[in-house]
Amino acid sequence: MFAKDHLFFMQKALQEAQKAYTKNEIPVGAVVVYNEKIISKAYNQVESLQDTTAHAEMIALTSAMTYLNNKYLMDCTLYVTLMPCMMCLGAIICAKVKHVVIGASHTHDTWLWEDMLKKKIISSQDILKEPCSTLLKDFFNEKRKHRMDNKMK
What we know:
Layout: H1 3-22, E1 29-34, E2 37-43, H2 46-49, H3 56-68, E3 76-82, H4 86-94, E4 99-104, H5 110-118, E5 122-124, H6 129-152
Parallel strand pairs: 3-4, 4-5
Antiparallel strand pairs: 1-2, 1-3
């Protein structure tokens, strides 16, 4: 895929993250692409579903498996606005996702991600990094401000 394709699909993942933001969920979005077509998209739903596993990646992977009627996503690319956690990484590996494209990254677990980069699972990082990061920062700043306002009352 070309860089412009990465931008297009990451923008779709970012739209999913914005849905999460409006629903007071941590704003992470994901899309799965097969044959240059989006076959699933999702956003974090941990709070609304009261399910600690309802991360955008997990929901998008499950939906893509259903769409393809296959537990493996070997010819698929996952676009996600934030570097996946350990749980999601395990699911990505088990699903045999061909490529992962990341919007924003974080500093913890970098040793693991460096290993994934070496294995060519992660094909690109920092695609639309600024808007992906800004959405997350804004969300957590609002949470902190809300907590501080409640403490002042």
